[in-house]
Amino acid sequence: MDRPPRPPAERVLQAVKRFPSTAARPAVRLLQAALGATLLVGCAGGTAPVNLGGFSPAFKQGYIDGCESAGALSQRRDAPRYKTEPEYMQGWNDGYSACRRR
Fold this sequence. Notes:
mainly alpha, 64% helix, rod-shaped
C-alpha cells in the first residue's frame, strides 16, 4: 500500500530534522563578522581608505589634502602647487569630491 504524498512543507521540515544546519553556521558567522566589520569601518574617522598605488606622489598628496579639507572648517591646500601642478590639482579635486559625500 502506497502512502499518499506529503505536502512540500512537511517534506522540508522532515529534511531539516534529518540534516541539521551545522554546515550553514560558519557561513552565517562569517557573514555576521563581515557586516560588523563594515559597520565599524564606516564609523571610523580619517581619510577614506583608497588605493592610490598607481598614482604620482603629487596626485596622492593632493588627494589626501582634498579629502582632509572636505571635513574641515578651513581648506588644506597648497595654493602654489594647486595652480602649477595639474596632478596635484586633480588629486585635490578628486579627494575633496570623494570625501565630501561621506
